[in-house]
Amino acid sequence: MNLDDSIRVVRTEGATPDGPLIGKYLSRDKFERSLPIGPALADFAFAYDLAGTPQLGWWHDWRRPFLGDVHQRPDLDTLTVIRPGVASVLVDFVDVDGTPLPVCPRSVLKAVVARLAANGYTARAACEIEGMAFTESYAEAKAKRFRDLTPLGAPHALAYLTHDAYRMRTLFDEVARRLDAIGIPWEAWSAEAAPGQFEINLPAQDPVSAADTAVRVRGVCREVAVDLGMSVTFMAKPTESYGSGMHIHHSLQKDGASAFYDESSPDRRSALMRNWIGGLIATMPAAHAFLTPTINSYRRMVGFVAAPLVVSWGEDNKSTALRVISRSEKLARVEHRLGAGDVNPYLGLAAILAGGIVGIEQAIEPPEELRALAWGLPDRYPYLPTSIVGAADALEKDKAFADAIGPVMAEHWMHTRRWEWMMFHTTGGDPEAQSVTDWELERYFELM
Predict the structure, then answer these.
(1) pTM for the whole structure
(2) 306 C-beta neighbours (distance < 10 Å), count
(3) 93-104 pLDDT, tens per residue?
(4) Among the four given CATH numbers 3.10.20.70, 3.30.200.20, 2.60.40.10, 3.40.630.30, the one describing domain 9-101
(5) Which residues contact 390 (CB under 8 A, 6 or more apart)?
C-alpha cells in the first residue's frame, strides 16, 4: 500500500443492497492496523430497511444467530484523496473469517463477472446517471416535506436546454472539478427533460469499475449539494414530471475483439449477441426486481416518457427495454434502459450480466425484434411487472437467473422487496395513490 504521507484520515465506503454507502472515518493508524480485513461493522447493517426497521421475517446462513460483526475489506486500488488529508476507499463486505458476504453488492457483481470470464468473455459497461437538483437545502426540503421544491432550472419539461444547464453550472462546475481532482472519470453532463433534472454520462469501464464510478459520482453530487446549500436526489420520481433512470450500456469482448459484432451476418449481430439478447429478454421480469428496486421506481413506468413497459428489444429503438446497436464493430453494444434512477449500480450491472450469461449458457434465441413504438401496445405483448411485489414473484420463479446472480442474493432480495411492499402498506403508504406519496418522499429522497 502506498498511502501518501499527508493522509491522516481514511473514509471506508461500501454499498448496502438497498444502495446507500456506509462506512467509517478512520485515523491513518487505525486504518493501517485494520488491514487486510478492514474495520468492523455490526452485521445489523444488512438486516434493517431504509427506515431503520429490522427485517426479522427471515434469516440466512451467513448471519450468526445473534448480533455480530462483518468487516469492510478495503480495495486498495480504489484509494483516492478526496480532500486535503482525507482519502476514500471502496470496500467489499466480508465475515470475520474474510469470506465475502453473499449479499455484498460489490462481491455479487465480482462473482458474476468471474462467471462471465469462465464462459470466455469480458465486459465493458457505462452508466448514464439521471437525478434531480433543487435550490432548497436538504434541511429546507425536509421542512417542506419534499413538496413544492424549486427545481434548479426552468419549470418546463424540455430536454437539453442550455440555459437550464447554465443555471445548473454552479453545482456541476464544482462536481466536475471534484471528480477531476480525485481521478473519477466522466464524459458529459446536461439538463434533462424534467424541471431540475440532469444527466451525467460516464465512460465505458470494466463492470466493477463502472459501478464504483457510478456510486462515487452520485456521492460527489450529494456532497457538493450539501456544501452549496442545495439538494440532489436520485429517487426515481420525486415530482410529477418525468422520472429518472439509469441506462446501462454494455458490450462483450473476446480476445480483445467485439464479441457482439459479425461482419458476415446480415444484421451484423453475432450468434453470441443473439444469445445474449435472448437471455436478457428471458430473464427480464426477474431482473426487473433489481433494476427497479423501490416502491417509487414503479411511478416512473409510464408510457411515452422514456421508461420501458414491455419486455422488448430493437435496433436503435429507444422505446424498447433493450436498445441494440450493431451498425459497426466499434459501437456494437446493448443499452439496457430498464434501470430506475435509484438502482444500486452493482446489483443493476450484476442483474444484466447474469441475464446475458443465462442466454449464453442455454443458447437462448431472442424473440422477434420490435420495429415499432413500444408504448401503447395491446395486452398480448409481454408487459413487465407493474409492482415491486410482482417483480419479486418473477424473481422467485426464475431459477436460472437466481443461479447466475447468486441464490442467496436472489432469495435475500426477493424477501426485502416483499418487505418493502409490506412496509408501504402498513406504515403510512397509500396503495390507492396514483402519484408519489409522502411515504415515498420521506423514505427515499435523501437516501437515494
Answers:
(1) 0.96
(2) 20
(3) 999 999 999 999
(4) 3.10.20.70
(5) none
